Every structure is written in C-alpha cells, then in structure tokens.
Amino acid sequence: MASLVLLLVACEPIVDENHLKNNTDVAGVELVASQSTAGGNKITLDMVTPGVTGYWDYNLGTALTNKITFVYPIPGTSTFTFTGTLGAEFFTKTIDVQVDQLDNALDQDWYDLVSEDTAAGKTWVFDGSGGDNGLWWFMSAPGSTDNAWSVWWNAGGTCCPPGDVNGKMHFDLNGAANYTHYQDASGEGETGGFVLDVANQMLMVSGAKMLGADAGNADGVYEIVSLEEDKMVLYLSNSETYGTGWTFVFVPEVK
Asked: Is 12 domain-assigned?
C-alpha cells in the first residue's frame, strides 16, 4: 500500500502557475502629443508609460509602435486612439490634438484629390457619358491593379451606365475628411467621410456611396491606379455584385 501511495504521488505533475497581471490601470497610461510648431500639423504621438505596449490609430492609418510622427492634413480638433495591453487585459485610450495651420506640406496626393485649397475641396465627375464608347466605368479582371485596364465589359461607354452617371462626388478637409456623393448634378448630396492611404495607395469612403457604386461595394476600399490633378483612376478588385474587378475613371468637374 505504501508503495502504491508513493507511486501515485510521484506521477502527479508539478505545475508552476504564472498568472498575467496588470502593470498599471488605464488611468495610469500616459499619452503625450506634441507639435513641431504651435498649432501646426506635424504631430508626434507617444505612449510613455513603461511596461505598456500597443499601437496608434492616427486616422490616416495605424502605427505598430508606441511613438509615431506624421504630417496631418486636417485642421481642427482630431482624436487619436492608442490600443494596448496593461499586462492582463487590453485597453483603448484617446488624446485630442488641435491643428490650427497646415504649416507642413502634405503628400501631393492630398492636393491632387482635394485641391490646394483643402478646406474648399474638389469635385470629381466621370470622364465620359453613357453611350460614348469611352472607357470610364467598366468591368475588369479581379485581384490586382495590374488588371485595371483589362476591359471585360465596357458597361458605361456602351449600353449600361450607372444610375449616377450624371452625378458627382466632392472631397474636402474642412474640419474633417469630408466626402459627399450626389446622385445627379443638381440633387442634394449624401455626406460621409473618407480616408486617403497614401502609403498603400488606397481610397476608402464611408457613410455615403462611391460615384458609380452600381459596380458593387457601395462604400468601401478602392485601390488607386493613378491620381493626378486632372484625372483619377480607381479600381475595385472584388466586386461583391459581379465577382469581378471594376475600373472607374474620374476628372475634375468643370464649372
């Protein structure tokens, strides 16, 4: 019997339990924002509490680091979010920054999209009209911007333009990244927002549909094929409606 007891005791595993614990609480996490000039648009965001790690969402993208410096394109008060771990749990915390002047130049793509007068913004329309045989709204091969000019079906230029073929869309940075879709030239606009990801050449709209949304994915992510002052070509790589790609060609509105 004694031998059996010794055998059972010897077979019991030895468990060294290590429990995660918090290094601090959310109130103890210190976020610091600084600007290169008073009210300027070159901003540094820093999470300075030791033992805490995470990432910043700075509205133009995310930075997988505790500290990030960037040039911000939008005047006014903006809120930036840090998401991290205290050790045993995740948290989010925000900090506000007031931008009074765009004293650092933006990437050229911003000016091409919204004009040099960023608060007034810029209006874009299709580079063509229904039945003109032009290539401005057409089905293309899916998957990559390399396929953007592979015309599978020239819908807009032949038989079947989108319902908002005579509409327009407006982008501006008047206190926020504002986007407005107009179903036709004189109708009331539907307002939303947008994100221009210069690094990854993506344009995202939300809250209002993209001009030409009959192609599918009414609001969502569009890859930038080219963006110049006088022309913008976007590509939808995964039309949920057709299971294809779709290419959009826009030019600035002529008043």
From this structure: no
